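Narrative of activities, Objective 1.

The group set out to show that a structural description can be obtained from nothing but a protein's sequence at a throughput compatible with the screening campaign. Below is one input-output pair from the validation batch, recorded exactly as produced.
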Amino acid sequence: MRLIAIAACLLASLAACNTPKTVVAPDMEQRQLDTLVVSAPAIDAEEEMVEAMEEMVEEPTYELPVYRASQTRTSDLIHTTLDLAFDWENEQVIGKATLTLAPIFYPQNSITLDAKGFEFNEVRMANGDSPLSYKYDAEAGEVTINLDKSYARGETYQVYIDYVATPAPEGGSAAITSDQGLFFINPRGEDPNKPQQIWTQGETEHNSRWFPTIDQPNERCTQEMFLTVADKYKTLSNGLLVGTRQNEDGTRTDHWKMNQPHAPYLFMVAIGEFAVVEDEPWNGITVDYYVEEEYEEHAEDIFPYTPEMLTFFSEMTGVDYPWPKYSQVVVRDYVSGAMENTTGVIFGEFMYGTDRELIDVDVNEKIVAHEMFHHWFGDLVTCESWSNLTLNEGFANYSEYLWLEHQHGKDAAEMHRIDEQNAYIGSELHELIWYDYDYPEQMFDAHSYNKGGLVLHMLRGYLGDELFFAGFEKYLTANQYSAVEVDELRMAYEDLSGQDLQWFFNQWYLSAGHPELTIDYDYLPESNEVTVRVRQTQSTDNNVPAIFQLPTQVAIYKEGRATRYEDIMVNERDQIFTFAVGDEPDLVVFDPQFYILSERQDNYDEKDYATLYRMGENGTARYEGMRYLDPSTETGRALFEEALNDPEHELRQVAMGRLGAPSEATISRIREIATSDPHSGARASAIEMLAAAEDEQLAQIAMSAAQDQQAAYPVVAAGLSALASSDLTKAVEMAQSMEAQGVDNTQMVGAIGAVYAAEENPARLPYFQDRLTQVDGPPSIGFYATYLSLLDATEDASAMSDGLNRMEEVGTDQGLSPYQRFATARVISEFHAEQLSKFEEVSEEDQQMLDDRLTRLEGIFQAIEDAESIPQLKQYLERFRPQPRA
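Output recorded for this entry:
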């Protein structure tokens, strides 16, 4: 311990002392220092010091480190049969469950099941009439059932449970905002604008809120469900619909059956008035989409490339899609982005859109890819504990890169990888395989997802494509229908490659963090050599390695291309590599493919960065070349002007964002992008750039964009907003026309709101009031701010009071998106600051009114904070809490 080390140093110094003096102990409290004045012989001073130090040293505590072990299995859950009906009025599940189990090894005379919020009507053996005794721990959500006898290994037994479940939440997280398990949406039909639905969300251990099970990822079973519903509803569950029965009371019972085993958290139900759209069958299996009727004709655009992805992933993994169907459904008020329930994927309503709204939207296809890939990595092969979650999520995240690379090219995939890395960097560091998390939902973070995918990309770079993808087939085939830990992935690649890969998995999966690299390049003309110095500067806190072992390459560029690649191994804290060359190369690049997950600083000069952009081998290299250049310099501006013609639209947008006001040399190119770029995001950025520059052709270009009936809505919205700056009257006229036509796309609502904001006409308030819950994402901030600004301009106290009440309803509604709730809180905070700044400028009478308003705004913000169910968002809101009045 540290205090013992200090005592040893102090005693050593005292032994050399012959004169009395004050002893300085750095970590002691001052009151203790005041007593340590040596006035006796040295030996007495030593004894006093030892006694003083002993008083300060706490008794050591010896505790095992936290280890979230996989669930111990005593009985194997073989099959689950559920017969379910639903009490919509009371939001309850009326269930009958028959579970088939067998001892794992030791004889069993009882079984403990997860069952949260249950009332039990009957518990017995399925083949008998006599009730079984049981003990229900409601707080733990577990029922322990005493069996009719002891069952030995190899014997099966069936337990029958008649129950009523009342799913209710206990908490939530950023990834899964509620742990309720099963959700009734508008169950009593009180909201005329929302359909009645039932849907489930089982991950992590939430399906045991609606059926009794062993709710762990290392369990799996086959299943069948009998779902009794009103005849107007469609049902969806895992597996195939094998039968349906009309009942005398007007209800219908659908029988769904899954003959392949999967984990209980993947069980799903979705019930509602859905239109079911069937795509072309894939390899003889059904591919269908469940959507609300108004989106029926857009279903294939909502779930883009589904059959193509089934083919691509089957070929890429070497394992054909292993399940009997592929269904996807969009539900209301979903508590997560999407969930990979086996054969029945559930998505939130953010997926909805018309064909036009989905132009150039890549979110849908990335999420479709992510959830589909889980059917190999997560459903077929499942992490055995939540500590190993990245074996599910890391692969699913990397599937997005793989799909984009396949369908849209390497540059598109690299732009996605940059976003993934940026989202990971800065997150709180912990091991990728994290055995000491506080609660399972903590695992759903930028490590399990982002870092997990980025580590797989590094493994691909190290092993090469052929071996990397062959590893998919070996891992999946060896472990199909089973639960795995990270060592099984390592061993699959070791068996294939003949290498010991423990070093890779130790540093990337079992340690925390990533390298922070400083890279210096030099050319030595006297010896015709180049040197590359690589320094690892990362802190070693939180189990971050002092040295990462990094196999990579150095590329040497000459005459516009890489003429040499040198393989190197970085395995020191500070390391220099030297390469003989002829004359001075154009550029030298460490890790030219940018495979390594790191924070890196290449000590290039301006010319080198420009060369990296022009010679780099993928979109990341070009992005890095742009990132450090200053557009105010001659070299920088020339580079950004050149990048207006980059083949990747995101880099064209980066160039426009960095350039500032376009020059005479570039204005024609900006106009060209604004009118005819193949990507709507680039078009919208160019229109905004022309508006900021007050270009003489802005009115014509903006009008054309706003009236373009084929353009994506971001282009139309940018055109309408730009038109407001050049011809407000015409913009208002067009906004009114769009409003009358019912154009209610989020981007368009934001753009129309911006036009009405420029008009400063309180008569437009109803437009905002009617759409407060409709606008989402970044446009919502401006929309809500404009609403409060217009309310303020009315000087109508009752209108302001009503408006603030509406804002509070939005901000505290956990059924709305986290972004809407955040936007409401932020705008309330900013409006509070604005109102506070007026305080000294108004009369005493108005000060009282203003004081009341400030109090109300503070109360709204507090109510939003109190209602927020996502801990991370609640913490983030603290940054925006209104400043108290002096």
